[in-house]
Amino acid sequence: MSLLPGCFCCDQEAAEDLPVRERVHVGDGWRVAHAFDTSLPGWLVVLPRRHVTAMAELTDDEGAELGVLLVRLGRALSRVTGCTKTYVMQFAEAPGFGHVHLHVVPRMADQPEDRRGPAVFGYLGVPEGERVPEDARDRLAGELAAALTA
Ligand SMILES: [Zn+2]
């Protein structure tokens, strides 16, 4: 795997003993983590396990694995969070976060009007006190991991 030291995503990939919230799923080409700075339980981030800055750099095999993974994550999120569907987005524009990452986000039945569509990003980058706590992220990650293999 080709990693870029200093890249947040690559450094996480290189770390040993990642908590379950950082490895909801680890496949050949992709790792799934629960977003750390969100207030929405179940907000997932899907990351290539090597340093890639554009979808165009992915191999066909990585693309095929990603397609199936997105569908399975949608099913797992539906089962675990009760969401009606999932949003999928990829920008990698934030400074220090140029490593490709797809946001896979549960859209809840009661999601307020002003948090639907692109406005769902109001749930990301929230202050520390509003974030889903680590233990809750670990618990959700475990449930999602189990649902993925069910
Ligand atoms: Zn990277």
TrEMBL record:
Motif window: Histidine triad motif: 99-103
Domain HIT: 41-114
Keywords: Hydrolase
InterPro entries: Histidine_triad_HIT, HIT-like, HIT-like_sf
UniProt xrefs under PROSITE patterns: HIT_2
Pfam families with a match to the protein in the record: HIT (PF01230)
GO terms assigned for molecular function: hydrolase activity
Top-rank taxon, per record: Bacteria
GO annotation, biological process: nucleotide metabolic process
Name under which the protein is recorded: Diadenosine tetraphosphate (Ap4A) HIT family hydrolase
Protein source organism: Lapillicoccus jejuensis
Lineage: Bacteria, Bacillati, Actinomycetota, Actinomycetes, Micrococcales
